[in-house]
What we know:
By secondary structure, the protein is α/β, with parallel strands linked by helices. The protein has one domain (22-232, 272-310): NADP-dependent oxidoreductase domain (TIM Barrel, Alpha-Beta Barrel). The protein contains 11 helices and 10 strands. Helix 1 links the parallel strand 3 and strand 4 (64-68). Residues 33-319 form the NADP-dependent oxidoreductase domain. This is Alcohol dehydrogenase. It holds the Pfam family Aldo_ket_red.
Amino acid sequence: MAPTPTPTPTGAHQPAPGVPRRRVADTDLDVFPLALGTSMFGWALGAGASEDVLDRYRELGGNFIDTADSYAAGRSEHLIGLWMRRSGSRDATVISTKIGRNPDNQGLGTAGIIRAVEASLKRLQTDRIDLLTFHLDDRGVHLEESLSAVDSLIRAGKVRYLAASNFSAERLLEARVLAANGLPRFRVLQTHYNLLHRAEYETSLALLARAQGIAVMPYFALANGFLAGGYRSRAAIATTTRGLRVAAHLNRRGTRILSVMDRIAGDFDVQLATIALAWLQSKNSICAPIAGVSDPSQLDAVMAAATYRLSRADLIDLERASAGS
């Protein structure tokens, strides 16, 4: 394998709309290599702010939007649907939405899946979901039942492909056996993975994803903003659920990782968010990390990772700094 070229400083590293798309596993979905997370739409971000983020994401070449029927009780999907209708961008957008955690349609039983998809379609103002994701592994329902329900939706043209979130390697193997008998196959895995949270994915799921040809979409790609460099002391962190997650990273290992990232950022005039996402995109099977923002201006650094390549030396330094726990 040829050595990874050392990146050349290019200022803001703003990606052009012509950034190459990535094929999602063995589907016909071609996506920008950074999915826009929309969990803040409808609560932390109102309608106007959400539209501004979506407009900027599209302007920078993005076409892959990740949401869920449980985000703001469906409000996230609703705002995305309004934006797609206003902008006329549905056919140019790949929509990934998750089901299973909305209290109105909880779990992955047949009736709940059908109702959840119908509700999502209505909120999104569309006739099909490009990538339907099981938001959880519902152990109270036989996996065969869940997959059979999705099979009927695929045959009806309401769902195109299926994904899994928060599934173990064992359950993904079980799903593959069922798929061999004609049921829908998981094409994508959403999983918690970043520079601070490596062991869970790297010890079991990475090998399985590669062996089965499953595309991986890491969530918490920026560790709730910690890897963007915005939190350096406990005094700057709010006492919220998100704040507690961030505070857990303010330790020797977290500081060590930020120190390496600061050095790379200084050498090549990039933002820390760009570095964190570029590290993920250097990994096998990673299709598109999921990252959300609270302001359109933050998207420049996030999406710059699509065109930024870490040098081999920088990758080694990041691996060493983030090793262990």
